[in-house]
Amino acid sequence: MLAGAYAFVDLETTGCNPVHDRITEIAIVSVRDGAVTERWQQLLDPGMSIPEAIQSLTGITNAMVAGQPAFEDVAQEVQRRLDGATFVAHNARFDHGFLRNALKRCNLALRGPVLCTVKLSRRLFPQHARHNLDAIIQRHGLSCAARHRALGDAEATWQFVAQLAASGIADLAQHIDTLTQRPSLPARLSWEALDAIPDTPGVYLFYDERDTPLYVGKSVRLRSRVLSHFAADHSSHREMQMAQQTARVEWRESAGELGALLREAQLVKDLAPIYNRQLRRHAALVSIRWNNEADGIPEIVGGGDIAGDGLAQLYGLFRSKVQAKKALLGLADEYRLCLRLVGLEKPAPGTCFRHQVGKCGGACGGHEPLLAHQARLATALARLKLVSWPWSGAIGIRERQSGGGLEELHVVDRWCYLGTFRSEDELYGREPLARRPAFDMDTYKLLVKHLMRSRHPQVVPLPSVGQASA
Fold first, then answer.
1. Domain 191-271, CATH 1.10.10.10 — does that match?
2. SS3 at position 337
3. Which is nearest to 255 in space by CA: 370, 85, 140, 409?
4. β-strand partners of 26
5. Are 154 and 12 in contact (CB under 8 A)?
6. What does the alpha-carbon distance between residue 59 and residue 245 come to, in Å, rounded to a whole number?
7. For residue range 184-231, what is the model confidence (pLDDT) as tens digits?
8. pLDDT mean over 419-443
9. Would you say the pTM of this structure is higher than 0.70?
10. Calpha distance 136→164 (Å, rounded)
11. What is the DSSP letter of 303?
12. Which is higher by pLDDT, 135 or 428?
């Protein structure tokens, strides 16, 4: 038997964005201890036109919702029907997110455990590839009187769970408990503070009771990632300690993953949180410089010699000179290079010791042409070649949130991140940008990955911004 109170919910909406779109129909099938106690369905006036594609899919037209109550008129009724029950929906992230935002606009909260029947189906039937509602209806022989209408889909979802309960699936209650378990929060945090976090891309910041930054993270699903930090199964003592010290959580939404990555890298360096290590600022960044000339010897450079507009002769980025020398030594071993001619040993008369043991081609003593050695050196260093800035000035990288919501313009000049703006108008409406920040390895790597390896990055030339920030 399915013990306890459950609310099987389905919504029809004007679109996929819970912030900008609105609900056109809601249905709630209330179940207690395995029996339906009430069915409730209501058409709603969304206060905006329903797109034609959605009218065709659902059958709900603008004429049907005209004169119906707005969500604000039924908000308290919705909260009452959901209060004290486990919220159940197929793809619960969608329905729960829409309702949470709709109730928030009415100064009401949506609390309680959530069960997603997509996740339940995947957990119980991993041998099947498809777990959408159509696939589940067909696979389990369910009936749905009105597909893509709120009550019809809510009824089908209830039938699926009722069938599972009646079939005697082993540990069904345990599976449901696992999927609906909410993490235990540290004493200083409240669910009210975390319920406002959207499940969209962005960055989050943890602070302790003295407002000391503890951790900066990023995710394409902010809410889920933040809550995962407070789960009982911490992967390490360090993770558990950080979670228990957290007294306040901040979050900043972004249009996509690139914006979240850029903000994370910048915030970690600006705030130096206690539990961030990889992205924290290092005092010295070094590289290998080589002019590719016949008699040129590589040199290790750092500081002002590394800049986004002067990467043509640079190979590799390293945290220290020791790392750079280790990389050069590895290349010398692999390509039989002379340590004198790669700058790792001082010049001396005669051939080097490595030539005597077969690790050097002998260019140092005239046993092979210098050009042959330099050709191998060029091949060896090619794998470390840094990417020169391919634009004449600054650029904006446009990023849009899935579903057509938030849009941002990330401004970059010579691999340096200058900031994020909502549009060109906002960018040019500001005071001139501050001087370009120092070249940063983490920002360089993530920008190269996005701009050079993405199929269709949306790039907007902004040469005047580059001149203002130089």
1. no
2. coil
3. 409
4. 11, 42
5. no
6. 51
7. 777 778 777 787 888 889 999 999 999 999 999 999 999 889 988 887
8. 76
9. no
10. 12
11. G
12. 135
> What pairs with residue 42 in β-bridges?
26
Helical spans, DSSP H, in 125-201 = 133-140, 150-166, 172-180, 191-195
Axis-axis angle for helices 133-140, 150-166 (nearest 10): 50
Length of the chain: 470
Torsion angle of the four alpha carbons 221, 16, 425, 308, in this order, in degrees rounded to the nearest 10: 40
HSE-CB for 352 with a 13 A CA cutoff:
21
For residue 436, CA distances in Å to 260, 307, 380, 385, 411 come to: 20, 10, 32, 23, 11
Q: Which two tokens stand for residue 453?
A: 């390896």
* 5-180 to CATH, choices 3.40.50.970, 3.20.20.70, 3.30.420.10, 3.40.50.300: 3.30.420.10
| Catalytic residue list | 148
Q: Which of 409, 407, 400, 396 minimizes the C-alpha distance to 465?
A: 396
* pLDDT, tens digit (0-9, with 9 covering 90-100), for 301-331: 987 778 766 788 899 999 889 999 999 999 9
Sign of the C-alpha dihedral computed for residues 158, 159, 164 and 167 taken in this order? positive
The pair of three-digit structure tokens given for residue 25, joined into one six-digit string: 């129909």
In the numeric block, the tokens 């130096």 are attached to 272
Residue the block writes with tokens 């050196």 = 377
Please state the domain extents for the chain: 5-180, 191-271, 286-382, 395-469
Q: Residue 469: what pLDDT? A: 44
DSSP 8-state code for residue 385: B
Question: What single DSSP character describes residue 344?
Answer: S
- Whether the CB-CB separation of 250 and 207 falls below 8 Å is answered with yes
> Dihedrals φ, ψ of 389, to 5°?
-65, 120
Q: Give the gyration radius of the chain's Cα atoms.
A: 30
Q: Which two tokens stand for residue 341?
A: 């001619």
Which pLDDT does position 432 carry in this prediction? 53
Residue 342: Cβ-neighbour burial (10 angstroms; 0-12, 13-18, 19+):
buried
Instruction: Choose the weakest-confidence range: 76-90, 360-374, 449-463.
Output: 449-463
Average pLDDT, the chain: 88
What's the confidence (pLDDT) of residue 470? 42
How far the first Cα of the chain sits from its last, in Å, is 69
